[in-house]
């Protein structure tokens, strides 16, 4: 069984290109990894490993829109290094992903006139399999990439009784999420260790809690996850939803801190270390919210900011929140509650725009498989 | 550009599992190829070629339902021969294919408890690329399979003025279709020749015109393609459609005869021969229409036969016929004409059921790449 099945439906991204359109920031995050990617790629190519098809994987690709420029850059670099070498490109995500949108994006012609679908000797595939499984035959992955995906856990270890995300969990609930996060990170690394070719590299860009305690939407100003929580609590008080429903609105996510990311590599008996993986580089970065930036620069007024800001939050929370609502409610009523919820959020942002921003906080990692 | 883009929309199979449900016969055709497939596989395995992942391709897979048993059989046989060897399974079809249905079918658990998605060391991918392109890196395909797919041409060379399919074409129109069929068959073989590993095998099961002039739906009784044609002609007479629309209802298909299939292999300067392909086996077979069989056995009465028979015809003709209708008609009207058309066909079958059957007429080919 695919490990993500347990949460299928609760974590599926909203389809139809919605994800890329509302995630300008996610693209900024990926573009910022470009130089790390190219340096890691160069180091791998210099190692002279293998003459088989050069295999690239985009793990947790969603519709592929945000990584397309980066993938083109990688393909171009491999080609420059070895014009004759075939390139195999694997787009990986959950079975419930919007693959039609992915295929459209990959086939689209770029401004330079290129399309991955028409470049000679570039072979591309979709693997509807999560990163909690091995997706490629052993020793065949030359360059792996993943951005803003691996905070999704393989399963929700428990509900969080007084919050919607592990950043607001406490006590045994927090421990359960941390433990799930630890096991899942080890499992992801084990699968990748099998896949990677000798001297292969992975560039992983994951949400994190950084050295000063910042994380997505919590970089000064109001804490975005507290707003998510508080607005639902208002709905409990107003009898729009029940206390049970509030509790079930728990995102199956965990943000590792740097030490947690490092752990499987550091001890000689660490899972990743034993499997031949080395953490060559880790740093945290804050990428500013592009929506708030437009408000602060004066390009957008408060209602416009609120109007464009909410969809980016909605794209990755809606399905979890929706599935927290009782199935005894008619689907129509559930949709109405969800609309009302994001409308309430939008009204809040329009009212006090200077307090809101979803800055991204990521750990950028380069991982090497020993040769 | 993908060569099939020109006809995208006009040849897309109707999605949502509709294809497999209405193509019991297509599965019979594939199951009948099983022993040929296994013998070719054994011959390849005995050649001892390669220790890389064993790569299987299902070319023109549609929703994968009809070939699933056969693919399981192949996977089992490879595993039996070499329990340690990873298996790579590539499902290939046009970008407009219903990939959601494909993913569901592949992931489904079989009666024996197995699923391709959970078998250890089986890696499966979708390639949304037509068989008129090279889909795999050179020399990496161990076993290719295709059934009832390669009669779809890469482009329609012209309209057929007085019929809907090349079997009813004459003169220069027939010549144009034959020439397109020749070029397309050569192009398919050239792409596969690049992909195949040394001593790799392909089993291709294509619609054909057999040695006695039979072809799909023309094995005695009424000629199915003539009915398609005549019902549209009735609609012209009744002013339901125009003469222009009748002419545009041309299926972009061509059925090779055995000599046409053989041609690229036989001359020393034949495209396939020069590329290292050898036609090891070709035979034609008629697989009886499973719908007509149920009528003749008394299991179904005439209306039931007609009710279940029409969807199998509709699954592969509707999009072409629909796109033949003028876009100046509202979409609603076009759908109504299509409904009326298949209703007329159904009424005809219910009225004279013993005249109707869509027997399959295929050429079964085994092709080897020299080592």
TrEMBL record, chains A, B:
Entry keywords, A to Z: Magnesium, Metal-binding
Entry keyword annotation includes Metal-binding: yes
InterPro entries: MeTrfase_7, MeTrfase_capping, SAM-dependent_MTases_sf
One Gene Ontology molecular-function label: methyltransferase activity
Keyword Magnesium: yes
Stored PANTHER family: S-ADENOSYL-L-METHIONINE:CARBOXYL METHYLTRANSFERASE FAMILY PROTEIN (PTHR31009)
Protein name according to UniProt: SAM-dependent methyltransferase
Species name: Candidatus Entotheonella gemina
